[in-house]
Amino acid sequence: MLADSEVIHDAQTVQAAVDRVAADIRARLADKYPLVLCVMTGGVVFCGQLLTRLDFPLDFDYLHATRYGPETQGGKISWRSAPWAPVKGRSVLVVDDILDEGVTLAAVKESLLRLGAAEVLTAVFADKLNGRNKPLVADFVGLTVPDRFVFGFGMDAGGTWRNLPAIHAKKEGA
Length: 174
Ligand SMILES: O=P(O)(O)OC[C@H]1O[C@H](OP(=O)(O)OP(=O)(O)O)[C@H](O)[C@@H]1O
Ligand code: HPA
Description:
Radius of gyration: 15 Å
Structural class: alpha/beta
Strand content: 25-35%
Strand order of the largest sheet: 4-3-2-5-6-7
Low-confidence stretches: none
Order of helices and strands: EHEHEEEHEEEE
Number of domains: 1
CATH class: Alpha Beta
CATH topology: Rossmann fold
Bound molecules: 1-O-pyrophosphono-5-O-phosphono-alpha-D-ribofuranose, hypoxanthine
């Protein structure tokens, strides 16, 4: 997969975007003592790097929802784990790697509001420009990506390459 890909955002661009998103989140949430929730598995790299840049008090936990598995087409959401930390009355920031069709984050947000969160904000590293009318607009976005299968910086290609520091896209026709 790596050999059949091209870098669309290099590691330096990725790091600059994480810095920018962290500053935007700080401006919006620094005085809210938020609960930050990582959407496992893809959110782990962005969320981990973001956390080290957030210099204000916050709580951290994770949830696990998946609908792609190793596939490139999304299916039904499978909830593997709800957040353990209570969300009632909290300002919650949900962090994920990519907003593609928007189905995952829309469902996560709805469920957190149902659990009594005071507000739910969402941060995604990549927002895919796929022309769809997504059910959710992310509050914080790192970078946009074209309507192609992308991987790296948390996003997997068939389960592999989440560890790449740049964003790659599968070559057209590969
Ligand atoms: O906007 P959507 O079309 O719903 O797609 C985005 C979701 O898809 C990926 O998760 P995936 O189901 O692949 O699980 P993973 O995080 O374990 O890779 C990604 O991490 C997002 O959570
Ligand atoms: O383009 C993608 N790449 C990796 N994981 C994904 N999950 C949704 N869309 C994508």
